[in-house]
Design a protein that fits this description.
alpha+beta, five-stranded antiparallel sheet, about 300 residues
């Protein structure tokens, strides 16, 4: 096959990057545009598509897309139902719906990582309740405090940018939080004092650590998230940090992710795994465009399937 014909085939292949169409925050749309810009530079046809603009039907013939059908999808949203529908229609989705679902719920992430022997802070998941009764029995909180000690990190199972992560000094504060959150699932986690206000973000694509930064709080916050005022510096991950990040990728079945790692007294501890890790800050910090790596990875996988 001549090079011109090969280039023509690549040009005809069409991909979508799906983002949430209901979130008006510009930060939500930035990764999709960044991926499209990278794709255009690399000669790929990638279009940003809102999740609310994808139409499909379900019936005895399976899942049928209405309108255009992409050759592949980079899924930059947490609309698990849509991701599963696209997969059922035979479309290759990066990351898979199962991987996104596992990362979207911090309790599921923790269970999977624990199953694979990956070190995380000691965690206790709050039992399921319902909106009609909330957490009316808080015995589990008292028992969790006796195991984890104080202060305790409390995380809503779903959330981004550290907004739904709290540090409580007393059992009463945790109980008050439980009263406020209704039936919102949450977990309780030991506080890693040696990593207070600092962590590492490693952006992984496949088994490769393509970019990494050290984040640290500038205002005394126990969280290191840049969105909460944290500062960032270039970081070259060591072998132990990369090994634990690769283990997370395999355990969760991820194509790309942002792995947040804490500084444990005797080695790295996984804090969280983000299936849709934003790429703007790490580009500003390191000069590395993670989107370029994602596009090359996706093209390589599609070409070899």
């Amino acid at each position: 096959m001549g090079s011109d014909q090969g280039a023509d085939i690549r040009k005809r292949r069409k991909g979508w990057v799906i983002y949430n169409g209901f979130l008006s925050w510009e930060k939500n749309r930035e990764p999709a545009l960044q991926l499209c810009e990278s794709a255009s530079r690399l000669g790929e046809d990638l279009t940003a598509v809102r999740n609310c603009d994808v139409r499909y039907t379900l019936d005895g013939n399976g899942v049928t897309l209405i309108g255009d059908r992409p050759d592949y999808v980079i899924f930059w949203d947490k609309d698990i139902r849509l991701a599963k529908a696209l997969e059922s229609a035979g479309i290759r989705v990066f990351n898979s719906s199962d991987a996104i679902e596992a990362c979207d719920d911090k309790s599921l992430t923790g269970i999977i990582l624990a199953k694979h022997g990956i070190r995380t802070p000691k965690t206790i998941i709050a039992p399921k309740t319902y909106a009609s009764c909330g957490f009316c029995d808080k015995t589990f909180i008292h028992e969790a405090v006796s195991i984890l000690g104080l202060p305790v990190v409390v995380k809503e199972c779903r959330g981004s940018f550290g907004f739904q992560v709290h540090l409580f000094d007393t059992e009463d504060e945790i109980c008050a939080f439980a009263d406020r959150c209704g039936d919102t699932p949450f977990l309780l986690q030991e506080f890693i004092r040696s990593s207070s206000g600092r962590d590492i973000r490693i952006n992984m694509v496949g088994h490769t650590a393509v970019a990494s930064m050290y984040r640290h709080s500038a205002n005394g916050d126990f969280r290191a998230n840049v969105t909460n005022g944290g500062l960032m510096e270039y970081h070259h991950p060591n072998d132990r940090e990369v090994d634990i990040a690769v283990s997370c990728m395999d355990a969760l079945g991820l194509d790309f992710a942002g792995i947040d790692i804490l500084f444990g007294e005797d080695g790295p501890i996984v804090c969280e795994v983000n299936s849709n890790a934003h790429m703007k800050n790490i580009l500003m910090c390191t000069g590395i465009n993670v989107a370029d790596h994602i596009i090359r990875y996706v093209v390589s996988v599609i070409d070899n399937e």
